[in-house]
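Fold this sequence, please.
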Amino acid sequence: MLLLNRLSREKPPYPTLLSRYLSSASASSKLHDQYSFMPPPSLSPQNHQNPNSTPKKKQKPLYRPPSSLDRNGKKPTHSDLPFDFRYSYTESSQSVRPIGLREPKYSPFGPDRLDRAWTGVCAPVVEPKLKFVDGSENPNLEEKRRWWREQIQGQPLTNAERKILVESCQRHKTKKQINLGRDGLTHNMLNDIHNHWKHAEAVRIKCLGVPTVDMKNVCTQLEDKTFGKIIHRHCGLLVLYRGRNYHPKKRPVIPLMMWRPHEPIYPKLIKTTIEGLSIEETKEMRKKGLAVPALTKLAKNGYYASLVPMVRDAFLVNELVRIDCQGLPKSDYKKIGCKLRDLVPCILVTFEKEQIVVWRGKDYKPPEYGQSFADRECFDDPESNEEYSKESCSSDESNDHQDFYSSSDEE
């Protein structure tokens, strides 16, 4: 017992762990006072972390629908684009005024997110004084769009530059493309085109469905709304060039539509009696039109650019033309019939049994050979810098007919 008490009272020969830590802390403090020395963070016990521990992933916040309460004092989005915002620019016309609306005038851009009023059909760039259903457009807007487009395009492309851009957009070079379907050129598609222009000078656009009946309108609206230029066209494939002076960081502000607005109510396409005919004559004509052999059968989401010249050629022989539309949605063949009425022109007889029956009218005058042939527009030769050519292009026209018939046979 005495021996144990003596050993416990003696000073231990080696410093304990606590004394070592205190001595090192005092030494580090002395080094800091004398030499301004700071130990690295790896030696600090507080900053030591386990290397095997994995960082926690941040959880994605839950979706919240847009609300006017979330604005937090932010101003509505302002866009300097000099045209009225519509859901579709190719399938809607400012000349046709609807007779009513299917829903209240809720803006598809969201509550208080755009500084333009929604009229039920469009968001006009100029606020109309009278709250009409269709917005009134300033006559100076077309000139402003043309000036803006000239500033972005700059000098025209040379033949070599044009061939390089067209080759870079072919299928074996890139798979990126924009699909233009039955809704035509929609407003949100403008944002998609500018997103493609961030990484490439040109973008490939594939057009199918109802808008291809009037490809000239599709090309015009694309160039007018995007300020680009179509440098190549083969059937429904387009190559849209952004311009020499285009800067992705200076792209225009394009507010996105958050939902699709309901279509307004338009006058009926088929009336009880055809103008100039009695009720009995109208019934007889509809019965006769359904018995006429079909001119062609349309495929679902096909390419219909050759449909208008086919109907014009058929009117040289028959006064009634029937087009088989079995398998197409009802809204599709009604839109096709409306386009034929304006482009051929002709008179709509009936849409019964998924058929389009059109009548050439009593005072029908066949167009001259030169005019009818000039309407078959095709893209010009790459050796010239003209956009469109109304000269003869028999090879491309035959390709259009061949593609049309092949799509019909697939259905």
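Residues 17-35 form the longest helix (19 residues). The CA atoms of residues 143 and 305 lie 30 Å apart.
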